[in-house]
């Protein structure tokens, strides 16, 4: 029996599962793998505890939460593979918006 791994982000770090790249255009043309743009949207899988306020010693909570669909900057994050899934670890400041 194999144990499923997990990642717990620290501080202001966020774990994001990037959305799948489009395989064809709106007009129905199929795109080769090399020409697909990596999506700049994804779903938050986990969040850290927030940065530490050095004056009070309290954590500053993040403004996003697990399950939020977000838009992030083009070169945001560090790619990691976990149990075959490709994920991104990024700072909260790399998140540009939450999609409602």
CATH class descriptor: Mainly Beta
- CATH architecture, by name, is Roll
Write down the CATH topology: 10 Kd Chaperonin, Protein Cpn10, Chain O
Radius of gyration, in Å, reads 16 Å
User: What order do the strands of the largest sheet run in, or round the barrel if closed?
Assistant: 6-7-1-2-5-8
The portion of residues assigned to helices is: under 10%
The CATH superfamily is identified as GroES chaperonin
Main beta sheet, described? 6 strands, antiparallel
Protein structure class: mainly beta
What is the number of domains?
A: 1
Spatial separation of the terminal alpha carbons: 39 Å
Mean pLDDT: 85
Number of strands: 8
Number of helices: 0
Secondary-structure element order, N to C:
EEEEEEEE
Query: Uncertain regions: pLDDT < 50 for 5+ in a row?
Result: none
- Beta-strand percentage range: 35-45%
Question: What do you see in this structure?
Answer:
This protein is mainly beta and 100 residues long. It has one domain (13-99): GroES chaperonin (10 Kd Chaperonin, Protein Cpn10, Chain O). The protein has strands at 13-18, 41-47, 51-52, 59-60, 69-72, 78-82, 85-91, 95-99. The chain has a 6-stranded antiparallel sheet, with no helix packed on it. Strands 3-4 form a two-stranded antiparallel ribbon. A hairpin with a 2-residue loop joins strand 6 and strand 7 (85-91). It starts with 12 loop residues before the first strand and ends with a strand. The mean pLDDT is 85.
